[in-house]
Amino acid sequence: MTDTAAPDTRTVVVVGGAGAVGTMLVDQWRGDGATVEVVDAASGDDVTCPDTVVMELLRRADVVVLAVPEDVALTAVGAVRATMKPEAVLVETLSVKSRFAAAVAGDAEPVIGVNPMFAPSLDMRGRAVAVVVHHGGPAADVVLADLARWGARVQVTTADRHDRVCAALQALTHAAVLAFGWALTDLGVDPDEAAALATPPFATMSALLARVTGGTPEVYRDVQLANPYASAARDALVRAVSRVSDAAVGDIDDFAALLARARVPLGDRADDYAALCARLFEDTVR
User: Residue 161 and residue 153: Cα distance in Å, rounded?
Assistant: First the structure.
């Protein structure tokens, strides 16, 4: 066991606690019985230039969460970390980790990054949360234990690896979905006619399109803009579409080779994904 305060006695300050990710974490820690204080721009708080009330909250905190945009986090991190107790842990929730990792590279105090790989409105149980341990320590270990106790699948990685993988999981995926919608618009497909004749793959892609296009533009733009590897992911998508066109006008061997190469990223999980697809397709029948 560590000397870090137990969940029901810790004081947690969530900067950006009125936002989606912040609210999710506030609810979880309050459910544990922790004392949780919310600092948020919506209430007039400015963590980049904190007043005496916010400064005192930071001094007393066992955990400080920066659930804020990257520019705010990078501006505030030096002053926030300097104000906190040395043994307290700082938690960032950024979707891109590399620049923040560079900003805290010289620190010795506990700092970790978390990135819920799902919409905060969904139940955390059974879902992946990426974790980057910028600097470890007992207080950081307790936060990791919190996530596991809440039911998250904690996946520890490095900042650079996180950003590389998320460029594929998020930037590439969102770009493919948005390109699908843009192509449908260019083709002049009638929504009602498409819905009446929709195949299960089309219905599934349309469901993804509805979710992405119904989201917050700032969030989805940030996925494409902030990740240093997102541009390479989009370029790969453009090349892949071109290869599909080339294979379509080739012979059957060319198309078989296209399918085989496209299957490579599934690895040994191809059967699992095929079973998941079957379940999803069953749900498209009403």
Answer: 17
